[in-house]
Amino acid sequence: MSRPDSAAAVRIACGQFCATPNPAANLASCTKLAQLAAAGGARALFLPEASDYISRSAGETLSLCQPAASSEFVLGLRALAQQHGMAIIAGIHTPPASASASSSGRVRNTCVYISEEGAVAAAYDKVHLFDIDLPACGICFDLRFPEPARWLVARGAQLLCYPSAFTVPTGRAHWELLLRARAVEGQVWVVAPAQVGRHTEGRRSWGGACVVDPWGEVRGRCRAWDELDEEVCLVDVDLEVLRRVRRECPLRRREDVYPAI
Questions:
Q1: Most buried residue, 52, 64, 86, 248, by CB count within 10 Å?
Q2: Which residues form the CN hydrolase domain (predicted)?
Q3: Which of 228, 147, 157 has the alpha carbon at shortest distance from 181?
Q4: How many Cα atoms occupy the beta-carbon half-sphere of 202 within 13 Å?
Q5: What is the per-residue burial (b if ≥16 Cβ within 10 Å, else e) of 33-56?
């Protein structure tokens, strides 16, 4: 890889792998991705949605779900972050906040930000849960809604992350299109780690993890649907590119007419 173009650039790794119902095996895959990222000089590693496990049934989802504070998978990621001095962002399952939600068989689809010191510094629960008429599928649905992205950009966001597990049909049709749309309309960097391959009988993910710049150009991508090993793409996220795009194409000058959400 070449050196970053400017002092404002930070090298990141956007990863993909095929999670299974075995959290220990998934942690081993994430360990390989962390090693690839560190060898490439990345300061942060972005991992997919549901990196801890993808189950075969709702009952298995509940049985495997653990609090982030005690999850062996999360503890493993924290150790990797500290070992490599690299932030790690990953999608996991966490128990619901209330007993009533727990009794209904629900879990939370959570994204955690682990600092380079190995601490869970922030967490986000997915807002738009899967709601599409396809059999035996799961999807990172937030990407389809521009409003949360606009809300974040209006409050200073310079990079949006969408850890995902897109189905093969929706991934083939919409994955890169939606990522580029979020980048162009927000004039932000978009990082999209992804699940890929055949997880269980009847459950497949598209893959194609990628990084898109504020002009809508794909700066790095992993391969789409295939039976693949762990893979990362390394990209220098340069905030000077963001500033130049916003300066030369000033979309925010009409917020008096179109106020930010």
A1: 52
A2: 10-239
A3: 147
A4: 7
A5: bbbbbbebebbbbbbbbbbbbbbe
Q: Is 111 annotated in the active site?
A: no
The residue annotated as part of the active site, out of 14, 111, 140, 222, is: 140
**Long-range contacts, 22-29 (Cβ 8 Å, 24+):** 22/53, 23/52, 23/53, 23/64, 23/71, 23/72, 23/73, 24/72, 26/51, 26/52, 26/53, 26/73, 27/72, 27/73, 27/76, 27/77, 29/230
**DSSP β-bridge partners for residue 122:** 113
Instruction: Look at residue 84 in the predicted model and tell me its pLDDT.
Output: 98
49 given a catalytic annotation = yes
pTM: predicted TM-score of the whole model, two decimal places: 0.90
Low-confidence stretches of the chain (pLDDT < 50) are 1-4, 130-136, 138-139
Residue from 32, 60, 116, 126 carrying the catalytic annotation = 126
What per-residue string of b and e applies to 157-186 under the rule 16 or more CB within 10 Å gives b?
Answer: ebbbbbbbbbbbebbeebbbebbbbbbbeb
CA distances from 45 to 90, 115, 121, 140, 182 (A): 8, 11, 15, 19, 21
Domains in the chain, CATH or no CATH each:
10-248 (3.60.110.10)
Distances (CA, A) of 168 to 33, 138, 165, 171, 236: 22, 10, 9, 5, 28
161 tagged catalytic: no
Q: What is residue 105's DSSP assignment?
A: T
CA angle 4, 177, 127 (to 5 degrees): 90
In this predicted structure, what is the pLDDT of residue 202?
87
pLDDT at 103: 55
45 close to 224: Cβ distance less than 8 angstroms: no
From the candidates 18, 30, 49, 161, give the one annotated as an active-site residue: 49
